[in-house]
């Protein structure tokens, strides 16, 4: 069939490589590339406000595009343009195992930026850190840089690399919308 023709195989390989290459994208474009937006009502908050949250999936390790304060500055600009209160940046990438002998290991990180002072950040950190499915731990090596007082930023390594946005989005909803 078609899948056995050498020129088709070669073109398919080239297309897959080009499609996966995000090296030409700016941090803003990386945030926009695979993005979903949600609205949540904070039933636990006295005024029961509605907040906007976004989740961006980025196929690169944070340190390759977000270090030296870039993660926060780019995210803040993006959040202000979209009127977001919360942005979750979910990274997914492959990294060589420590031994170096075995094949690449799939990894995930999460960066969360909260531009709100309603107690939202503390609630989010607690909910994420208690969750048994995604199993986050604070990312000790990634430095967020200087962050203004009104903003909250936290970066995690994700213990369960199999948990995608399909696991994170419902978790975010539970954390933000549960009444207690």
UniProtKB/TrEMBL annotation:
Domain of life: Eukaryota
UniProt cross-references to InterPro entries, sorted A to Z: DHHA2, DHHA2_dom_sf
Transmembrane segments: none
Residue ranges occupied by any DHHA2 domain in the UniProt entry: 12-176
GO CC terms of this entry: cytoplasm
MF terms (GO), sorted A to Z: pyrophosphatase activity
The name this protein goes by in its record: DHHA2 domain-containing protein
């Amino acid at each position: 069939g078609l899948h056995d023709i050498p020129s088709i195989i070669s073109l398919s390989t080239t297309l897959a490589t080009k499609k996966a290459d995000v090296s030409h994208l700016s941090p803003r474009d990386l945030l926009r590339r695979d993005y979903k937006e949600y609205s949540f009502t904070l039933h636990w908050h006295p005024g029961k406000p509605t907040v906007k949250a976004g989740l961006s999936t980025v196929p690169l390790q944070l340190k390759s595009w977000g270090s030296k304060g870039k993660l926060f500055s780019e995210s803040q600009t993006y959040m202000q343009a979209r009127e977001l209160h919360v942005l979750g940046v979910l990274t997914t990438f492959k990294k060589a195992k420590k031994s170096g002998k075995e094949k690449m290991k799939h990894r995930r990180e999460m960066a969360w930026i909260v531009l709100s002072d309603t107690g939202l950040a503390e609630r989010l950190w607690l909910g994420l850190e208690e969750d048994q499915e995604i199993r986050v731990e604070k990312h000790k090596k990634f430095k967020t840089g200087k962050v203004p007082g009104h903003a909250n930023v936290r970066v995690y390594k994700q213990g369960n690399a199999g948990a995608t946005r399909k696991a994170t989005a419902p978790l975010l909803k539970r954390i933000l919308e549960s009444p207690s």
